[in-house]
Every structure is written in structure tokens, then in C-alpha cells.
Design brief:
By secondary structure, this protein is an alpha/beta fold. The protein is 41% helix and 16% strand. The protein is built from 24 helices and 18 strands. The chain has a seven-stranded mixed sheet, with helices on both faces. The protein has a seven-stranded mixed sheet with strand order 3-2-10-5-6-7-9. Helix 19 runs antiparallel to helix 21 (617-640). It is globular, with a radius of gyration of 27 Å. It starts with a helix and ends with a helix. Residues 1-24 have low confidence and may be disordered. Bound molecules: zinc ion. Zinc ion (ZN) binds next to helix 9.
Amino acid sequence: MKRAVTVLLFAAAAASMQLEAQNAPPAWDATFRSLTSASEIGASMRRLSARPHHVGSAYGRDNAEWMAARFKEWGWDVAIERYEVLFPTPRERVVELVAPASFKALLREPTVSVDPTSGQADEQLPAYNAYSIDGDVTAPLVYVNYGRPVDYEELERRGISVKGAIAIARYGASWRGIKPKVAAEHGAVGCLIYSDPADDGYGLDDVFPQGPMRNRDGVQRGSVFDMPTHPGDPLTPFTPSLPGAKRLPVSAAPTLTKIPVLPISYGDAQPLLAALAGPIAPAAWRGGLPITYHLGPGPARVHLKAAFNWDIKPLYNVVARLTGSAFPDEWIVRGNHHDAWVNGAQDPVSGMAPELEEARVLGELVRRGWRPKRTIVYTAWDGEEPGLLGSTEWVEDHADELRRKAVVYINSDGNGRGSLGAGGSHPLEGFINGVARDVEDPDAGVSVWKRWQSTIVATGTAEVRNEARSRSDLRIAALGSGSDYSPFLQHLGTATLNLGFGGLDEDGIYHSIYDDFYHFTKFLDTDFRYGRALAQTVGTAVIRLADADLLPFDFTNLADTVQVYFKDLQQLLKTTQDNIRERNRQIEDGVFGAIVDPRRPMRAPQPEAVPPAINFAPLENAVDGLVRAAGRYKKALASAGPRLAAHPEVVRAVNARLIQSERQMTDPGGLPRRPWYTHLLYAPGYYTGYSVKTLPGVREAIEQKHYDEAESEVVRIARALDRESALIIAAAGDLEKIR
Ligand SMILES: [Zn+2]
């Protein structure tokens, strides 16, 4: 009985679908999803990760040419765009303990016999931190935990200074370039960064090759330049590093470190840390090594020597196009980087290979008769690892054209298994929720959206759970930095999405020689099913954006999110004021003297000025205005909806405005002390690097005690939101003309 009803309902549904199908255009995005292939993704990964392919390497160029040939074969117009960038590589590296005992660090990741590419020593970059300056120092060692400003406050209370010392920090909790920056600000003469086994080694799982985690000799390479100041070639800020470009001298590049830095394994770090004396490290600072963690300084003395070849190297961006049939000057841009530190199967190829699969299938759809209305631009960036070089130089090179034509930029950077992670511009939140509803999770038998929602419900607080169940769209994250979306979003003001799956796997091969095809196919997305899910998700988004008559921007989500940011900002000020008041009171009341432990002496903190009240009224009014404008656009759209098709000139006019909408929230003057970052809603934190600061001008004025800047930054953000509201109202006005 039940079954019969189901069959009848299904038959009715099928009949009505057939009717619709006669009128509606073919659902190209559904065809796209069905044509994607996990094994194609695996084949691309095997090819791209077969040899080391960092900036300036033979195989990096070979990969770029191979990808360009594939795009061509799939029917795309393709070019390789070359830039010339500063890319230092190591000439000499020494880390040795000279007192109280002697020990010379290995600084080398050995070949693992079961791993066929781990022995490609001739082509592997040695373990180093790019854009460390040259240096040769011998000094006492101090352990600084993650090396954030807050860690130095703890040290100071224990009477420990890094002045004249070498700071040893562990990886994690911030962009790695923050560690030498903060160490140098506190007077350190050198910096070592090591991978603690508690963070990505045996503290989490078995180590490679038995398991996925970092083994005792595994080292995380990586850039240490000052990305929060600006990404891209350190010698050509704001301008493209084309051949013959005017370059700063290396000594004047603002983003290089001030002190020499090298990364080391925990095998190399253990003897150094074990030789420290001085106070015991606070509980939260202790890692997973079988030693007692002391802070120093000394008696461990370390000799650190780093010297580099300061070469200018070519980089090769692959840029492929399918020209739009109706709106060729409106571009949907998609990218992932292709360069790696070594073989890079996970980072970046697990994102690059799905992007190639998207390009293959989009080409196949064209062969079957699809004509995208907008131009689709697929990019494979070189030089992301040293500092978003390829994407930043390309954006700086084509800035004027991109400001006019780029509608959306979609980024990925590697891919894992599990739930969709989405970040970006909030007007695209509703759109990407819709895409996620139509892609199937390869493991759970539910939609990607349902898995995304379930992950939030299973892990969130009561408030977050409620919202995930009741709000029509799941929230996407605001973007900080650390991948190629940064120049598009934060320099140009292009609406942006960053997408990838993850959450199920821990791995400890990030930026090591063991991030390779063997490791990936043994421990990560072994049969590329989530690689396929990424291609399906991004491809669906690209097709819908390319073919939408009216661009799917929804400003109510933006207005709602800006309200949240504003509330957070007010809360930050209040919490900061309360905390400083309370601490000042404790100092005055003699609390710190009364709880002293003479065996573990701690200095009382210094009293501090309480942050002044800030006049938020301009921002409050601007947020209200944005809420009203967004509501008016939504209403105008709903009532114009059915008649839009008859008014293509109105649709064009509205689209022209929507393309400029993200840009309204930028200010050409940029953020205080870092003018390259022009977006006033989000930026990487000056002292965190990867992670985002929302309303950064005001937030960092409070956090960094530039209180005098706070109110002028409030006004600047308010003006940006007013510009956005004016644009939204103008777009609503266009729609309201349709009667
Ligand atoms: Zn990457």
C-alpha cells in the first residue's frame, strides 16, 4: 500500500518534471555533476605531484605547461602569464647547541623506503623559512610557546626577556611569520620554529609512514614574510613584477623578517629544549615531548646561521578562458595554486586536481552545446606558497580590468574529507547554501548542505545549534588571509568565495617532503571522492553564476552579518574596559603581592589606562541604513521577479551595480599602517596573520591600544556601509521601475 502510493506520487512528479523540462533550458549543472570523475582527479594528482614543483623549479614550469595543454585540449583559450619575483633559497643552514652540551641539528627529512617520491633529494627544497634575512648569531635560548604578543606578556611577568636571545617558538596558533616579527619586536636576535608532537605529531596519531602524522625528522617549511603588511613580491608592492619592473633593493623590502629564522623538526628541537633551565613553562605551554618544558634563558646557547641565494625567479600563472556568449565582459574567476613546497599532493594538488576536472567537464558541456552567458576564467597560480605571489602580481597587473569585469572570484587551496567549509562575501551566502543543497555528500547519502548543517548542530553551542536549525542559510565565515583570495577580496574588493571539504582527517605532513601521492592515497581522500565533491560544488557554482540572468546577490545576509560584527565590536570594547579596570583594581588592592609564591616569583602587571568610550553612533546609523536598503532590494526583487525576463535592460543595469557592490566597502586609503588592504570589513590580523579581524580598523585600534584612531575608523567604515546602502537602493530603484 505504502509502496503503491509512493510509485504514484513519483509518476506524477516525473510527468510534471517532463513538462517543465520542455520549457526550461537543460540543467547543465546537473549534467556537469554527473560527468565529474574521481579517477580523472587521481590521475591529475599523480602527474602534478610526481616531482617537487616549487617556484622556479623545472617541474613547476613543466606542470604549468602541461596544465595549459590540457585546457587547450578541452577547448579553452589559454595563456601562461609570467612574472619575476624575489624567491630566496637556502645557501647555508646551521643550528647547533654550543652549551651546556653540544648537538648539531640534522635539518633534513630522510627518505622513507615505502614512499617512492621521498627520495627525490636533488629536486627537494631544503627545510627553511622563505624571506628570513641572512644572519649568523650565537645566543642563549628562550622558549616562547606560540610566539604571540600574549605569550611575551606571560614571559614578562616571570621576569624573562628575549632581548639578545634566540627565541624558540612552536608552530601553530598564528601565521608563522608573526613569530619572528614579534620576537624581533621584543629584541630577539634569532628565531627557531619547531613542530611540537602535541600539535601535529605522535600526540594525535601514529607518525609517518605507520600513520599520517609528522615523524621526528619532519619539518614544516613555509614563508615568514609579513603578510599582514602586504602579500606578493616583496620588491614590487602595489605594482606587477613584470620583467623590467622597478624593484626595491632587498634591504628595503618591508615584508622581510628583521632577524634570521629557521624551522626545525621535533627531533632537532628536543635536545635544545631539554637543555633549557629557568622557570617551568606554564601548563598550557607544555607540548608533547618527553621532557620538562623550561623557559630559559639558557643555559642552552645556540648557534643559528642562515644564508640565502637572493634570486629573482620566473613564475608561471596559467590563465584559461571560456568567453561568455551574452556578457563577455562579466567574468567568473576561479583559482587554486599549483606550486608546492615539495611534492604537495595535499597542498595544493588536492584542490588543483578538482579544478582541472571542473575545466575538463565545462569543456565537455561546451562540446555538447552549452554556451555560458558570462566569461569563465580558470587560473592556476604559481608562487602561492612563498606569499600569494602569482595571484597578487596578476591582480596588480590587471587591476583596472578586474575592477570593471570580475563578478566573483572562487578559490580553493587543497581539499580534505568531511563537511563543506565556506568563507567569503556575505551577499553570496544564500547562493552557496543553494549550491550545497544540490550536491550529494559522497559518504553520508545526504546533501552537502545537510552534512554541513549537521556538523554545526553536532559541535556548536546552544545558540549556534538553534541558528543552524532555524536560519534559512548557514553562515559562511569571514576570510582572513593565507590563500589566493586575499588580493581579490581585500585589495580589489571583488566578491569572493573560498571552498573546501574537511574536518575528518588530522595529518602532519604540511609543507614537508612527505606530503606526496603515497601519503595522500594511503591516509587522506584515498579514492578522491571528496575531490569529486569539491569539483561538483565549485562547478555548480560557476555554471549558475555564469548563466544567471540576475546575479544571485542577497544583501539581507550581509546586513545581518554586519550587525553581528558590530555587536562583537561593542562587546570587545566593553570586555577590554572591564578587564583593564579589574586588573588595575587588583594591582591597587595588592592582590598580586598577597598571592606570591616566593619559589616561583611573578611580577605584578603594570596598571594601564582604561580605553575611552567610543562614539559608535555613525556606525549604528550606517548599519540600520544597510538593513533597510537590503530589505528594500529584497522586496523589489520579489515583486519584479516574474516580469524580469521581459526587461533585460533593467537586469543589465542592476547587474552592473551588483558587480560593484563589494567594492563599495573598500577605501583606497587602506587600513592604518597597511594601505594595501583596502577592505574595511575584513582583513588578516596584524598579529595573527591567517585569521580574520572583522571591522579591522576599529577592532585593532582597541586591541593594539591605538585608541586615538578608533573614532575616525568608525566613521570610515560607516561611510563605506553608506556607499553600499546607496548602491543597493539604486539597484532596488531599477527593479521598482518594472511594473
Ligand atoms: Zn596551499
